[in-house]
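4.2 Preliminary Data

To establish feasibility before requesting continued support, the project team ran the inverse folding procedure on a target of 264 residues. The structure was first converted into the token representation described in Section 3, and no sequence information of any kind was made available to the design step. The complete token record follows.
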């Protein structure tokens, strides 16, 4: 199987001691390409630098996560515009709204989201989105711009059936993580993941976060990594009543098309 992890935070400092080994383990289990998430000004720069050091294997996004929205400035906007124009940057984001933690004021979150929508529209790049406990405002800001955008993915979807149906109606792609492997918080996803059309489903780890709780044997630490993407694949395939091979083929083709990745 060949898989694409559409969301991995490999620039996170938890990977500083063994990043090369982490990358090799991912390749060993069939993760052939990875999209490195840019979630802050520095993180976006770091994602591009790491992608440049692994040509053909890694690509990057450039964006400001809602947690960092208060840092959004003219200089940050200019930086994102410059980074987004880089050949290895395949999407704008991670951007959106997060009212669960509210680490930035909500008005700052909405402003940063709207400015990044402008970048995606101007450059006609896909949009890599985050939404948590902010569905109504998220839809209110995003929906009027859909006609101007190229493609959009709801990264790390964790919502309920009504939210999923709304995103599907809005023609969004859906990224599924190890949240679906969590019997405490993600059991509902197993009941609704079949609603995602074959050509709009993608897989991701969101490493180092969201370690799949179904992994056996249990890893020695709570750090997630791209090598665990096959476990997300297994749980998704089982929940959808499809084979792992079929889901691997579908999601890889969809991710390649969505991010306009070169053939390997």
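Position-by-position output of the design step:
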């Amino acid at each position: 199987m060949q898989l694409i992890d559409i969301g991995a935070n490999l620039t996170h400092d938890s990977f500083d001691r063994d990043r090369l080994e982490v990358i090799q383990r991912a390749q060993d289990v069939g993760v052939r390409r990875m999209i490195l998430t840019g979630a802050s000004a520095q993180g976006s720069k770091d994602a591009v630098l790491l992608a440049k050091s692994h040509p053909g294997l890694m690509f990057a996004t450039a964006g400001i996560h809602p947690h960092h929205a208060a840092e959004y400035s003219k200089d940050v906007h200019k930086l994102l515009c410059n980074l987004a124009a880089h050949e290895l940057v395949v999407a704008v984001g991670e951007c959106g709204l997060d009212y669960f933690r509210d680490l930035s004021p909500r008005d700052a979150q909405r402003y940063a989201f709207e400015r990044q929508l402008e970048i995606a529209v101007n450059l006609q790049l896909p949009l890599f989105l985050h939404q948590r406990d902010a569905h109504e405002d998220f839809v209110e800001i995003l929906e009027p711009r859909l006609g101007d955008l190229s493609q959009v993915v709801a990264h790390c979807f964790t919502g309920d059936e009504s939210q999923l149906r709304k995103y599907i109606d809005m023609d969004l792609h859906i990224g599924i993580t190890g949240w679906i492997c969590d019997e405490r918080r993600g059991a509902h996803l197993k009941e609704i993941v079949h609603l995602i059309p074959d050509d709009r489903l993608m897989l991701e780890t969101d490493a180092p976060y969201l370690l799949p709780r179904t992994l056996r044997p249990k890893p020695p630490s709570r750090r997630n990594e791209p090598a665990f993407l096959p476990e997300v694949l297994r749980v998704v395939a089982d929940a959808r009543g499809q084979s792992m091979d079929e889901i691997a083929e579908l999601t890889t083709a969809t991710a390649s098309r969505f991010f306009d990745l070169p053939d390997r």
